[in-house]
Amino acid sequence: MLGELLAGFFSPSLSPVTAVGGAVIDAVPPGVKDWAVTAFGTADKAALLVGMGLVMAALAALAGILEYRTRFAGAALTGVFGMVGLAAVLTRAQASANAAVLAVLTAVVAVLLLRFLIRRLQEWGTQALEPAPSAPPARRRFLQALAGGAVFTAAGGLLAGAWRGAAAVASEARSRVTLPVPASPAPAVPVDAEAGVDGMQPLVTPNKDFYRIDTALTVPAVDPATWVLKVTGLVDREVELTFADLLAKPLTERHITIACVSNNVGGDLIGNARWLGWPVRELLALAGPRAGADMVLSRSADGWTAGTPLEVLSDGRDALLVVAMNGEPLPLEHGFPVRLVVPGLYGYVSATKWVTELRVTRFADDVAYWTPRGWSERGPIKTSSRIDVPRPGRPVKAGTIMFGGVAWAQHTGIDRVELRLNRGPWRQADLARGISADTWYQWKLGVELTEGQYEVQVRATDLAGGIQDERSRPVVPDGATGLHTIRVDVTP
Ligand SMILES: Nc1nc2c(c(=O)[nH]1)N[C@H]1C(S)=C(S)[C@@H](COP(=O)(O)O)O[C@H]1N2
Ligand SMILES: [Mo]
Hints:
Sulfite Oxidase, Chain A, domain 2; Immunoglobulin-like; five-stranded mixed β-sheet; 33% helix; alpha+beta; binds molybdenum atom
């Protein structure tokens, strides 16, 4: 019975459960997976969850018994289980700090609840042995605590369940989306856009490896069947667009590199994808922005907002209301069903995921989510570059060392990339062709090096003549500056 009671402890957070389940799915050999699919059919995932539920109930029972006998023994087991959950969360492709925090929190709550209940249970036990007429009925106190714990757990489980239900609807709808053929397809990636250096990041980032940044604790689950985008504010006429309306528009497909303002010099909060969408300027033209408007405040289903200069959305660049990423409907965590992508601006002022409203307004009248939190109102991407090869901390043999990496200045384009060793003269690298000015460019340079330690730095110059800012500045308030600097150990 204790097992049944304590089993509830582990369910307040279903996310770690999903993560563990995912890890189990990934870890089992293909043979077992095939067997599971044959045995349970499409219910294989349900079977997995039920199986995991049983294992957890058993573990919870064990924790309860251990804790009752030896103080902290059960808590330790719960803690270990929490660590397993955390490890599973962290090794998922979409590892997020939020999920990790949730896993840790779950473990902490489970331990506290366990301690609390066991103490009540022990009180009851002592009282049963030596009944003290004046003491409050320990049995009742234990049962009250138990009921409290159960209600708490059930409420958490219900919330998580409701969210999972909505997420299931969204995923199912996503799998049924048929993407239209683009009216303006993405130009073919030039063959000489690849620098051809081993160990470089791919020129186009696969969806599963694409960085994810947002404030959403759980991914908003938006059903495209009920999704509408409203254009409001300083417009001649308000416009409403359904997902079906959007798919019926002549869509544009382009490679665009997006980046986060929180990307440190040399960091990986940047990715390049092929996006399919409708130019925002066409939607704005339908609404007719009024004179005096200078900002579009885009709002997401979860209330997050970004403030984009109206000018940038109207100047002819490929600012898109995106429905697909690398040939697939947007992944849920990247904004399904619809998001914005704007070449040349950091994500926090432009790339609203799960977008539901475009409010035409003025910078003087409205503020976006990050502005009162210390970030700049405007966020143009800074010309920057990164060294990806050789990998840091990996010694290389003397001889010709191949350096390689990327440089970007979205919507301006890169003109030149240079490398310098030990603060010597800048040497020009071989710059590969960009897919377009809106994407990153790969570069490489072979350098003859003898044994020793080298400090290697890179800098980019954009096609407007802007040289990458060498001064080292933090990401706040409008993007880091400085040179990506690596140490290379050359062995004989
Ligand atoms: N709804 C919503 N959209 C958002 C954000 C957010 O917090 N909420 N973050 C933005 C930021 S800061 C960035 S860098 C990009 C990241 O997009 P990605 O997660 O698809 O890489 O999304 C932007 N869109
Ligand atoms: Mo960002």
